[in-house]
Amino acid sequence: MDHDNLGADGDAVYAALMATHEGLNEAESHALNARLVLMMANQIGDADVLEKLFLAARSYRESTPQ
User: Fold this and answer.
1) What is the domain partition of the chain in residue ranges?
2) Closest C-alpha among 56, 52, 23, 50 to residue 37
3) Counting Cβ atoms within 10 Å, is residue 50 exposed (0-12), middle (13-18) or buried (19+)?
4) If both were cysteines, with which of 3, 24, 34, 60 could 29 make a disulfide (CB 3.0 to 4.6 Å apart)?
5) What are the residues whose beta carbons fall under 8 Å from the beta carbon of 41, sequence distance 6 or more?
């Protein structure tokens, strides 16, 4: 997962994601993230790709200093 498919649009996508969370409390924000993950997983539609993404996301946290 070392590639950036968003390119120049990455910052705009991030800003839109942050705007989507505006005004939500922590529980609502977590619920929104869960819905987004499920919606994106359905859009991707490939269990092998999703498993690799889940592992990559988990390893990112484990490799980040706490």
Assistant:
1) 7-63
2) 50
3) middle
4) 24
5) 50
Alpha carbon of residue 32 to chain centroid: 11
Find, among 34, 66, 35, 40, the residue nearest to 53 by Cα. 40
Residue 53 is encoded by which pair of tokens? 């993404």
Which amino acid is present at 26?
E
CB–CB of 39/33 below 8 Å? Answer: no
What tokens were used for 2?
């070392």
Q: Look up the pTM and report it.
A: 0.74
Place of tokens 């409390």: 25
